[in-house]
Amino acid sequence: MFDQWLSSPRQLRWAFLPVMLALSAALAWLGWRLLQQDRQLAVQRLVEQRETAADLAVAALDRRFAEVEDDLNRALVEGDLKRHPRAAEDSVSVEFLPRALRAWPPDRLTYYPEVPEAHEVSASLFAAADELEFHRGDHAGALERLRNLTRSGDPQIRAAALARTARNYLKRGDVQRAMQNYAQLRELGSVPIGGMPAALAADAGALALYEQQNDRSAIANAAAVLYRDANSGKWPIARAAYHDLAERALSHLPSCGDSNNTAPFGRGSETLAEPRPEGAVLPAVAYDNFCNLVLDGKEPFPRGLPLAEAVDWLYDRWKTGSAAAMTGGRTSIPTRSGPVLLIWRMSGGRLVLFAGGPQYVQNHWLKDLIPLLEARDATLALTGTDGRAVMGAVPDRGSRPAIRLASSTQLPWTVQVFNAGDGRAPGPIRLRGELLIAGIGLLVLVILTASWFIARAVTRELEVARLQSDFVSAVSHEFRTPLTTLYQLSELLKRGRVAAESDRQEYYELLYQESDRLRRLVESVLHFGRIESGKMQFRFETVDAAGLLTEAVTEFAQAQQPRAPRFEVETAADDTLIRADREALRCVLWNLFDNAVKYSPGCDTVWVGLARNGRQAQIAVRDRGMGIPRTEQRQIFDKFVRGAAARDNHIRGTGIGLATALQIVRAHGGDIAVESEPGAGSTFRVLLPLAERI
């Protein structure tokens, strides 16, 4: 029973399919496990890369700190900051002394925590001029008393005289001369006057002059000049004086890139946003000058202001004797422009410090470190005590970072190292995984494809074996019928059991017909065998298709006596010549006639026609029989295949007739086509190329 079950193509296919699916599933599972192990290895490598990169980053940063601290220690010993200049762009070195404060380079700080009080000139020199100006309102007299003082060789006396002269000219309404005196006062630069450098006093005086004139455009430009000079770092200025000047200038200026009438301004670590008077808007030209000349079009705050705020923070702790400022230290101070790094050393009441802004750390400390991290597909983020990023950026999501806490590294930041990108495996590892997936998928596809072909081949072989078995059974049956008839008639004749001469003649006729039928069966099998083996030899000659068709119809009708079918033949009017093997083509026609008769039990008429179809001769054989379903019309030309109608109605046949006919016609360079509908009959058309006329 098991062998019989497996002998069925469909059952074998269903048995073969689960085996191949199980094999493919096992292969896919093994590939998935291998891929999982590869991914775990990739994740482990990423972790190792992060940890290595974090150690490298900590070592590199610690080495930078050590270099700066060595420079500061030498500066403490030698007492000269200039001999150890590590202050590049956006950085400054400062020395705190009990009664002084020195910076190198000197123009890096926007303001100083304290400025030593300068010796002011005696007020008695200007008593007479002040009396005339303030008490008598005699500005001309005051100017006359100040004329000689404006030519003094003492810069401080000259600066004080120029400031008073400009003020008196302004009160008289002589704006031009007042501006000339402010210009002369500005040339004195850092000469102290009223607690601030002469240049800044001149800028403030010019701004006051335009405020009195209510010239909005001139006010805005003068405010921009005052703000620029106050932040230039050219002249030492105390914190309080700087705040007063900057606040006064910003009251007339908008924030760069800010459409609101507010001005960001800071004192120490605070940030203020103070509303300006209504209408205090900078004209377009002055606004461009402010953004491009004052702030270089880049920085929302002057570059030296964060450094000044950081130095001011440490100075306050040094003055109060805070433990944070004793001996030395490292820290990072948050400012509006970003974190400022502070490193200091203290000895003998002197303190030296190095302050580096965010640009300095980025360009000089991290510049060499970033390529090392990129080589390991890693990125760096330095975070402060509040967890916010000081340098770099902390990704919103991704793999966990390698963390080095500030408490363990003695750095002012917590070092965090992340895998570059989205936290996935590096390119080569991802590529290996993708290749592995592609290889497994291709192998599974090959197995499934091969399984399909194998199943199809096995199924076809089993189907052919079944058809061959059916063919042997059909041929045996076809041979048995005429042989039985021959045996019975021969026995009757041999034993002399035929009474009348007429019966004897009828038996002879039957013997002839059955012998001819047996001959045709043998020839059809032999033709099929020769065609299958490729040993069929054709003898081509020029044949009149109409004559051959007529002969074949006549011979077939005579062979079917006494129940010969009725043929209606219609041939072309002119000669239709073809190159053909006469006997082979007659075999084709007999097969078509025989099928038309066998499959038309209710109609004894067969319609045969010959016509030209372009460069071809077309022979049509039509019947009004059972018809052939469309699904079987392709299969009936395969060897050993018989239609369902033939099997259901027990119609005799071997299943090789149409296959033999098709092979013979194709050997002639032609083809056979069929048109059929169940219950409406069938039409077979034989197309053969016409012979070339000489």
Structure description:
This protein has helices spanning 2-7, 9-78, 127-135, 139-147, 155-172, 175-186, 198-213, 216-230, 239-250, 284-294, 304-319, 358-365, 369-374, 406-409, 427-494, 501-533, 545-559, 582-598, 644-648, 657-667, and strands at residues 91-97, 100-104, 192-193, 196-197, 262-267, 270-275, 328-335, 338-347, 350-356, 378-383, 389-391, 402-404, 414-419, 541-544, 566-570, 577-580, 605-613, 616-622, 671-677, 681-689. Helix 15 (427-494) runs antiparallel to helix 16 (501-533). Strand 17 and strand 18 form a beta hairpin. The strands form 6 sheets. Strands 2-1-9-8-7 form a 5-stranded antiparallel sheet, with helices on both faces. It has a 5-stranded mixed sheet with strand order 15-17-18-20-19. A 4-stranded antiparallel sheet has the order 11-10-13-12. With 694 residues, it is α+β, with helices and mostly antiparallel strands.
CA-CA gap between termini: 67 Å
Percent of residues in helical segments? Answer: 40-55%
What structural category arises from helix and sheet content?
A: alpha+beta
Beta fraction = 15-25%
Strand order of the largest sheet: 2-1-9-8-7
Radius of gyration: 57 Å
Total beta strands? 20
State the major sheet.
5 strands, antiparallel
Low-confidence runs: 1-6, 257-290, 293-300
What is the count of helical runs? 20
Give the integer mean of the pLDDT values: 78
> So what's the overall shape?
rod-shaped
Features:
rod-shaped; single chain; 694 residues; five-stranded mixed β-sheet; disordered N terminus; alpha+beta
